[in-house]
Structure formats: C-alpha cells, structure tokens
Amino acid sequence: MPEATADLTPVQALRLLQEGNRRFVDGRAEHPNQDAAHRASLAPSQYPFAVLFGCSDSRLAAEIIFDRGLGDLFVVRTAGHVAGPEVLGSIEYGVSLLGCPLVVVLGHDACGAVGAARSAVEQGTEQPGYVGDVVERVTPSVLATHAAGLTEPDDFIDTHIRRTVDQLLNRSRLLAEAVAEGRVAVVGLSYRLADGSARIVVGPNEKDAEQ
C-alpha cells in the first residue's frame, strides 16, 4: 500500500483532497501518482483513499480538481449524483473491499439535473426517456428546498448534496455501520465551476473530527 495513503483516518483523507483542491485552484497542481513507475506498481492491486461519488458533468473530473493520480480515488459518477443499486454497491465495494475511509458526495453549481428538476417543479417541463427518471429522482431535493423557504441557486444544490449523503447512509447498512464505528466518514462538497474551489456542505461527524 502506498505509504502516503496507508492507514489514513477519514479526516486525514479529507485533508488530502482539500490540499489538492487548493493547489488546483491556485495553479500549483503537482499531478502526483501519474508517472509510469506508479502506474506499474498499481497493476497488482489498488489502494484508493476515498470514494468519490459525483455528478457526471464533464467539468468535474475528480483526479484533476483534487490534484490526485492513478489509484488515489475510487470514482462513481451519475447525472445529478442520483444513487441507484449499482451506485450503492460500488460505494460499498470501495468501503468494504478497498478500505476507503472517506466517501465524498460531490455536487456543483449550475447542475443541469438540479436545474431540470427545478423547471419540472416550477414550470411543469418534462424531459424525455431516462433523463426524465434522473429528474424525478432529483425532484424531492427541489421540493425540500422550496418547503424550507430557500430560494438561492446554491440552496438547491446544497439541499440535494445533503439529501444524497442522507440517502447513502439510510439505504446502505454497511456504510452506516462503518460510519457509526468511526472507520468511515461521508461528506458532501460543492464544486464551483468558475474558480475550481470545492467547499464543504456536509462535514465529517464529530467523532471523526476528533481523530
């Protein structure tokens, strides 16, 4: 296992992501773990330190915006970070079989799926095919934002991130148990497209923060 990511706590894993994101924002990216020797060393096995569950938006390439490399992140992406059985199984794989101490839900401003769900609720617009299914899964987040009396664009994004974090913990007993035992933290981040920064929406719980 790579020394830099061996036996990380959830908070330490989050710190690695934050440090990489700051380098990316500042134009100081180091592009770690992207050389031929590291590639060869990973051929027998992988040791990622975080599961990254994010939106499929083409501007959200996880290894780039967090300045990481091969073998660092176990990435799962869907439009609007909607979570079906395949997503839950993939996240559980990263936690239970690969030993990742951190699960990150990554949303972003100007999310097309959230925007489409807002249009569906506020204007009655519909999307064709399975895009409509994605919109339907995001719609409860829009309704919850309205119910809370919130109106700013970031409010809808943040609510959807929080609800996705809650959904992962509510639907996956394996993940919930790992969090309760302090082995894993599930956090939510929101990426800003213009400046490249990722801010915390849902932080690690108090037990993790003490580590």
Automatic annotation (TrEMBL):
Is Zinc there in the keyword field?
A: yes
The broad enzyme category this protein falls into is: lyase
**UniProt catalytic activity:** hydrogencarbonate + H(+) = CO2 + H2O
Q: Which InterPro entries match?
A: Carbonic_anhydrase, Carbonic_anhydrase_CS, Carbonic_anhydrase_sf
**Record Gene3D superfamilies:** Carbonic anhydrase
Entry keyword annotation includes Lyase: yes
SMART domains with a match to the protein in the record: Pro_CA (SM00947)
EC number annotated for this UniProt entry: 4.2.1.1
Role according to the record: Catalyzes the reversible hydration of carbon dioxide to form bicarbonate.
What name goes with this protein? Answer: carbonic anhydrase
Organism annotation? Streptacidiphilus alkalitolerans
